[in-house]
Amino acid sequence: MSILNILFGQKRTIQNPTFIKDFSKDSLQLANLNDLLNKVSDGDKKDNIEKDIKLLKYGLDGENNVYFELKHSFLPIICLHDVRVVYEDYVAQLDFVVISNKFTCILETKKLSGNINIDQDGNFIRTIKNRYGKEYKEGIYSPVTQNKRHVDILKHLLSKELKINNMPILSLVVMANPKTIIKKYKCPAEVEKTLIKYDQIKTTLEKYQNDKSNQYDLGEKEMLDIANLLIKVNSPIEMDLITKYQISDDTYARKNDQILREELMAYRLKTSREENVKAYYIFNNNELEDIISKYPRSEEELLEVKGFGKVKVEKYGGAILSFFKQ
Prior knowledge:
Elements: H1 3-8, E1 18-21, H2 28-39, H3 43-71, E2 78-87, E3 90-99, E4 104-110, E5 115-118, E6 124-129, E7 135-140, H4 143-162, E8 169-175, E9 182-183, H5 189-192, E10 195-197, H6 201-209, H7 220-233, H8 241-244, H9 257-275, H10 279-282, H11 285-294, H12 299-302, H13 310-322
Parallel strand pairs: 1-2, 4-8, 5-9, 8-10
Antiparallel strand pairs: 2-3, 3-4, 5-6, 6-7
């Protein structure tokens, strides 16, 4: 905490929610999945990709609900979305982080279908109806326990890197599905106070901000130091979609023959002009049709095309094969 801030006060410029790392529904992962979906021909793999796209959109819709509430809270806070903290041997995926002069709060967003019941032991039981209207129950991993671990990691990070040891670091688990009913009247008090619906975000953060028993008062520089540290240790994971869905060359959808014909003819003309030779020296029309028919994915397969020996493949193979891998 800044000594100057304690003695003389510090002019505050953050009057409304300020996003240092903003939210966007146009995620890179979603774009990559949609791109892969358009290329894959295997029916089962397409079904799996479509299912994951649906789940990702569902989760993003939930996070968008939380983002809207934070953005319109009119609180003097700094916010970050989607921070993957990697520090020492610890990893924590934080959906939203809210930094106030009075506290830091981690918001774990859950857009769960069905209704949630929390028993006296803090166990989460979800009730879901199937498409025939029959109800069934299942236990789910406690998001409260999950977020408590995130809080411990953030405390450790702030203590080690910024020597911040006494700042209240709070946990909120936000249910972002407006249709979900949460039954928590039997659950432990510690769980009950951390579990809220997304439309309760503003009032809950205001309660923490106006808590007279909390004498903590962080300067804006220190608030920004926390935000910048989180940006520094943020290490997004790049999912290997090819491995996840076991994509091989023959899984990709075959490109339209006419498109291939036009692309290869354009390449042939361009190359012949660059080399100042007749176009059919690169490959003639019969060879062109054989290339399209065999749809080569490797130099070995291109060697099976009429008129293509080792020398021609070495010279033109890389460029030709690129048209079959897009």
